[in-house]
Amino acid sequence: MSEKNTSPTEPAPAARGKQSQRGDVALPALGVLGMLRWAWTQLTSMKTALFLLLLLAVAAVPGSLFPQRPANPAVVTQYLKDHPDYGPVLDTLQMFDVYSSAWFSAVYLLLFISLIGCIIPRAIAHWRQWRSQPPRTPARLSRLSEYGTLVVPAEKRLGAAHAAEQAAAVLKRRGYRVDLRPGDAPNAFSSVGAEKGYLKELGNLCFHAGLVGVLVSVAIGGLFGYSGQRTLVEGETFVNTLVGYDTFTPGTNFQSSSLSPYSLQLDRFEVRYDRESVKQFGQPLDFTGYLTTTDSPDAEPRQRILKVNDPVMIGGTSVYLVGNGYAPVVTVRGGDGQIAYQGPIPSIPTDAVYTSTIVIKAPDARPTQLGFVGFFLPTSVEGKDGVAFSADPDPLNVQLNLNSYVGDLGLDAGTPQNVYALDIAKLTQVNGRDKPAGGIVLGAGESYTLPDGQGSISFDGLKRFVALDIHHNPGQLGALAFSVFSLMGLVISLFLSRRRLWVRVGQHEDGRTMVEYGLLARGEDYGLAAEGRAVRAALAEAWGLPAGPEQTPSAGQGTAADATPTTSTPTHKDA
Amino acid sequence: MPEINPLLGSYSELFMLLTAGTYAVAFFAFAWDVATSGRVAQLDAARLAGQKAAAQTAGAQGAVATAVVADPGLTYVGTRKAARVGVALSILGLALHAAGVVTRGIAAGRVPWGNMYEFCTTGAFLVVAVFLAVLIRRDLRFLGIFVLGLATVMMVAAAVAFWTPVGHLVPALQSYWLIIHVSIAVLSSALFTLTFSLGVLQLIQGRREARIAAGEAERSGFMRIVPSSLTLETLSYRINTIAFVGWTLTVMFGAIWAEKAWGRFWGWDTKEVWSFVIWVVYAAYLHARATRGWNGARAAWLSIVGYLCVIFNFTIVNMYFSGLHSYSGL
Ligand code: HEM
Question: Measured at the alpha carbon of residue B206, what is the angle toward residues B201 and B208, in degrees to the nearest 5?
Fold first, then answer.
């Protein structure tokens, strides 16, 4: 590896400077300020950055091993119940909130502080370099890794000064920044200093700065964004106000005035299933929701389509299709014969064939309130044990299987209740498989009257519903823009090369013009030899030399230094 | 949606089996090459040692003759019959493989990377294709034993552990992002497979160089056909930079797709966590290359760890971790 330490992969000057500096202040007998400076130097060193990166990778892993609260709060609760011994310990260690935990935040904040502390001095250093000339011509070009010579015959009458000018022009055309350094005497050496690839370091800086931009954008999204859910049955309309949501999660800095009052109505929802494949028979192929939207209360309504991978953008939010199911339309009458509930009830699908659980509550039923719990089966088939199950996700033979309850639904106290669960504490069961009256089984269009005239229920029709996720993330666009910016910087930084090139020209006393050139790479560079050949060919062409077979020149084969006879004391006046 | 063609699907599977068989034979050819070329190199060394004893000038030539076997510029020198057979068989295997992948795609009427069986078969195709493409310019045949070995394992794993019949995609996967996101992920993983092999060889070669430098005797001839650890490191860095850009794109496209599909571009889903970990490990690798004391063997270790994360992300995370990315088709 000894070769490596000499030329490739030298860190950018600022980073390197830091490392040596650190060596100087290794023993901090320097007071508070010295200590601080020492800590800062430590933090912004390349080694620390590397260490923090590895630490970040390790710190991210637990989040994939344990359930995470933001994604699955219910699973976390269950986990804590299942593991009363070490669950709470893990919880104290924030293992269920890894990505907002103190330790994870500490790692990435330190990394980003280190990053900023790294970018700024490097940017300043690069700004200076950008405005300065290519470095002075080294005394011995033959020491460079790519080195070659050319000899222009005397009859061309080129002359050193002229040759240098032409070489400079050639290099300029190849994208180099050039500095022509004419000799001070007519016969003295002239040289050209050239450099290209300043963009490489700039790309690297843009890459790192872009990462900071991504982080800031993500933070903005977390502060000012919001998200919510809503189930919407065919025919229903959602209005973007707080009461329109089933659940709502505001960002840290959310204000309800930032909701734009658009509305969307689900006109129709269509589903298609796979009917060809044997193994995947009945798998869903396509979900399409047909919407009518209005951007504001007095705007023109528009027809739009909602698909799984294709959210609808409206009023600064994105509306996603995240689920769907059946909503049987039922009519419930109380014991007094009055309609207590009429309309669709979303049922929750539990498997691929849409065996769905359903809860129907009729708090308005008189004389007593009524509640129903059971299953909805889109294609009901009776199993061997007499229990019906669903055989297909399409509604080919719909059926409701219900148990009924009478009594107090517990809704009047005003405490919020889950609409998908029935609290049977103060209820009396009437229908059920183990009750004398049996369970309620309703096909399409059928109705059932509860014993003792306690009420009735009828299954009038079927609708579909969709589950919508509605998000507003103001940081999203910034995150995208900064990532693209960062990526472009990365590509430039990785695949451009920073190269320095010098040409030295001298006049031999016999009239020949002797040219030598050398190339130096900064950092890793695979194309340096090829660039050397290309420059050689370009120079040869400029001077009308035969582009003959390339002989690998070795030092002392007619170099410009050989031209010394004209100037007995070679003066390398290159600044 | 185009119809499934099960007959074509079964032809595809037949092609895949033939491919696996051909790769396995190619693997043995490369193994034979490694075993015998090492011996040839040893014979050379012995002969040269003899010459050295006879004439005093052989010192410099000895160095040259060893370099003939493992050229630092990775150009082709000398003939290695077994290696040629290995390459020929790999080309044949790749042709069969192409037929398998293409028929699979036609049979399903979509891109052939929608479940683990298809990731694995298409991924192995890319591994071998990239390897053979690099061979056009550079003599990397010493990697054949690794590359064809891994490709054979992938094909067998696909047929045995991940087998899935041709079928349609579930709605969540029906998106042009599948084409973009997954193809780049598979391509980057193929490149990481190469750098992993290079990294392992680099470590072995580095040890050998250290032993030789310490004046110890060589134990096996195998590593003689492998270029110096520095050459290996440079090459693997070069491939890793391309693969890293590929992985960055994978993560970015994944985020855009997640935003479209799930309404958030990043949610620390298990698959997202591991893709992030992989990205950070390879970023650390690139950093290490520029950090004093961390290039060389340590960087190679980081590259290897990165690849282990890739494998973990593909196998364990797909099969045993629950998350939104449960499309393995198993
Ligand atoms: C968020 C954390 C960081 C990430 C993900 C990251 C990633 C990378 C990557 C991928 C590269 C190689 C590509 C390129 O050359 O542009 C790189 C290079 C570099 N990084 Fe970082 N970096 C991070 C933080 C830092 C910090 C804190 C420093 C300062 C100590 C730093 C200094 C450098 C330098 C000097 C290079 C150029 C190395 C060379 O010359 O090849 N980076 N970084």
Answer: 95
Q: Which of A95, A230, A308 to mutate to test the interface with B (most CBs of B within 10 A)?
A: A308
As separate numbers, helices (DSSP H) first and strands (DSSP E) second, chain B gives: 11, 0
Lowest mean pLDDT among A160-164, B229-233, B326-330: B326-330
E strand map for chain B: none
Protein residue with its CA nearest to atom 26 in ligand 1: A115
Q: Which of A267, A303, A270 is nearest to A288 (CA)?
A: A270
In angstroms, the CA B271 to CA A435 distance is: 49
> Residues of chain A with pLDDT > 70: what percent?
88
Q: Is the CB of A494 under 6 A from ligand 1?
A: yes
ipTM associated with this complex: 0.85
Task: Output DSSP code: residue A365.
Answer: -
Q: Which fold is adopted by the domain A142-197+498-572? A: Double Stranded RNA Binding Domain (3.30.160)
Specify which of A561-575, B158-172, B263-277 reaches the highest per-range mean pLDDT: B263-277
Quote the percentage of chain A above a pLDDT of 90. 45
A560 or A369, higher pLDDT: A369
CB B246 within 8 A of CB B188: yes
Q: Give the total residue count for chain B.
A: 330
Q: Which residue among A53, A71, A218 places its CB closest to the CB of B287?
A: A53
Domain with CATH 3.30.160.110 in chain A: 142-197+498-572
In which band, very low, low, confident or very high, does the pLDDT at B48 lie, cut at 50, 70 and 90?
A: low
Alpha helices per DSSP H over A11-158: 13-24, 31-43, 46-60, 62-65, 73-82, 87-92, 102-131
Q: How many CB pairs under 8 A join A and B?
A: 152
Amino acid at B240: N
* CA–CA distance, A523 with B136 (Å, rounded to integer): 27
The per-residue pLDDT for A573 is: 35
What is the CA(B251)–ligand 1 centre distance, in A? 18
Q: What is the pLDDT of residue A567?
A: 36
What pTM was computed for the model?
0.79
Which residues on chain A are in Cβ contact (under 8 Å) with B289? 9, 524
Q: Is the peptide bond before A451 cis (omega within 30 degrees of 0)?
A: no
Sign of CA dihedral A138, A560, A160, A548: negative
